[in-house]
Amino acid sequence: MPSAADDVQRHSVHTLVFRSLKRTHDMFLCDQGALPPMDESLELLRRSVKSRDQYGPVLKIVAQNKRKAPIPKNIEMESESLSLPSSTNEITPGALAIAPTSGPIVPPIPTPPPPQSTALVASVPSASASASASVGQQSLVPRRAPTLPRPKWHAPWKLGRVISGHLGWVRCVAVEPANEWFATGSNDRVIKIWDLASGQLKLSLTGHVSAVRGLAVSPRHPYLFSCGEDKQVKCWDLEYNKVIRHYHGHLSACYGLALHPTIDILVTCGRDSTARVWDLRTKANIHTLSGHSNTVASVVCQAAEPQVITGSHDFTIRLWDLAAGKTSCTLTHHKKSVRSLVAHPDLYMFASGAPDNIKQWKCPEGKFVQNLSGHNAIVNCLGVNREGVLVSGADNGTLYFWDWRTGYNFQKLQAPVQPGSMDSEAGVFAMTFDQSGSRLITCDADKTIKIYKEDDTATEETHPVNWRPEILKRRKY
After folding, report:
1. In degrees rounded to 5, what are phi and psi of residue 17?
2. pLDDT tens readout for residues 346-376
3. 56 phi, psi to nearest 5 deg
4. Is 53 helix (H, G, I), strand (E, B) or coil?
5. What per-residue confidence (pLDDT) applies to 470?
6. Is-contact 207 246, C-beta < 8 A?
7. What CA–CA distance (Å, rounded) separates 4 from 122?
8. How many CB atoms lie within 10 A of CB 408?
9. What's the rounded Cα separation, in Å, for the pair 386 and 404?
10. What is the pLDDT of residues 41-90, one digit of tens each?
């Protein structure tokens, strides 16, 4: 059987060189200006596809405009010389094609023009013609380049009052729905209730044997809920100022809690890497939301899906299906521990705070919206009001104020050091706005509670928006 080498040796070198020259000549034939003979049907097909692709949205509009207005004879003759149909029901696909730079030009096959009669014009519905004409005008108008929205002007915030009374770090805060008082929990194991208007102490509740880490006031019942590092979750009756229920189940310290706005359930989270759903009245553990691999630091409840959102030290955020007790979505965008979550009071969105970035998300699928970069510290807490002011508090005592819509950082604050406290005790552990959104309450490491308010004397002239949008960075995947 002859081998491949024998087959090659049958041809002379002259034959092989000639074949190589022939292939090279065919490859670079177009560069020499000499084109091979053209197939008219293929060229017409190419032109029709190109015209349909580039001029498709305006073909019918041009045809209707030509039907409405009579074309002068001189223009008609020019159009015939350019092989363009003068008046047709629909322009042929090859009519607006661009002729090739070289080679024979193959004219498209013209279609016979319809008779110019008033009946044909009257048969076209005026509404459809005007609608298509408006669409054509919109398609012909050049689109503007995308612009970044300008941030809304917000008045700067200033420190209004400093409240002292706790003997340890103040770790949590909750405002009563009627906006008359607020409660704070501290490392001194005491829950204190303060008058919001005057800042006077109204009541102290003792019962926890370790630091109090979470507070919530029920809008439908006279109940105050608290949780702490002693694994206990308590329900306080504010009519009798005593504990009426305990919710047992957490295996380690409890770091946060949230009340559902419409259902009588309570959700708590903690160091045992779980979030637990409790029935307020029966104290039953309805669900144990497990899936995180590290401490669950924050939990948020809302009426619409997803009804429970948790942030954890395992760098993830989980959106939970409350009916099934399972994770519906896991967000893995953060590269550091997620220590705080906050839901917008009006928009169907929420924000998460971590040392790497503050991120905004859109519900219900947890779609990422934007990063709020610049607060280069360990972000412990977030707060947002109805005016679109987002505040982040960090371990170094700094407060950054952001415009929710654009992510513009319009103010940076450093709380003043209180007499008798060390410089290192400048952290902000928790914050919340009151029900009106005009007061910001922060819980600090210097054992004080600070209340901030807007500066009434500030205007857009005295504090202008120094907005300089940066070049859009390439998104890294």
Report:
1. -65, -40
2. 999 999 999 999 999 999 999 999 999 999 9
3. -55, -45
4. helix
5. 64
6. no
7. 77
8. 21
9. 10
10. 888 888 888 888 888 777 778 777 777 766 555 544 444 444 444 444 44
Residue with tokens 């020499």: 32
How many Å apart are CA 299 and CA 318, to the nearest integer?
A: 10
**Is 117 buried (19+), middle (13-18) or exposed (0-12) by CB count in 10 A?**
exposed
CA distance 67 to 88: 7
pLDDT score of 375: 95
CB 447 within 8 A of CB 168: yes
Q: Are 339 and 294 in contact (CB under 8 A)?
A: no
Lowest mean pLDDT among 16-30, 40-54, 96-110, 169-183: 96-110
Per-residue pLDDT, 78: 47
> What residue ranges in 422-462 does DSSP mark as E strands?
428-433, 439-444, 448-454
* pLDDT computed for residue 87 by the predictor: 42
Which residues does 245 contact at the CB level (< 8 Å), separation at least 6?
A: 234, 235, 280, 283
Give the whole-angstrom CA distance, residue 293 versus residue 307.
21
134 or 102: which carries more pLDDT confidence?
A: 134
Express as a percent the part of the chain with pLDDT over 70. Answer: 78
Q: Which of 278, 236, 231 shows the shortest CA–CA distance to 255? A: 231
Q: Is the dihedral of CA 176, 180, 181, 182 positive or negative?
A: positive
Q: What is the DSSP string of 55-106?
A: HHHHHHHHHHHHHHSPPPHHHHHHHHHTT--SS-SS--TTTTPPPPSSS---
139 has pLDDT over 80: no
The Cβ of residue 324 has, within 10 Å, a number of other Cβ atoms equal to 9
Residue 399, SS3 per DSSP: strand
Token pair in block for residue 312: 């954890």
Q: What is the C-alpha to C-alpha distance for residues 225 and 258, in angstroms, rounded to an integer? A: 9
List beta partners, residue 234: 226, 246
With contact defined as beta carbons under 8 Å apart, do 243 and 225 qualify? no
Distance, in Å, from the CA atom of 228 to the CA atom of 226, rounded to the nearest integer, reads 7
Q: Between 446 and 421, whose confidence is greater?
A: 446
CA nearest neighbour of 362 among 299, 304, 413: 304
- What sign does the CA torsion over 385, 389, 394, 399 have? negative
Contact 184, 163 (CB under 8 A): no
Assessment of whether the complete model's pTM goes beyond 0.85: no
Confidence of residue 6 (pLDDT cuts 50, 70, 90): low
CB 272 within 8 A of CB 251: yes
Strands (E), 101-221: 157-164, 170-175, 181-186, 190-195, 201-206, 212-217
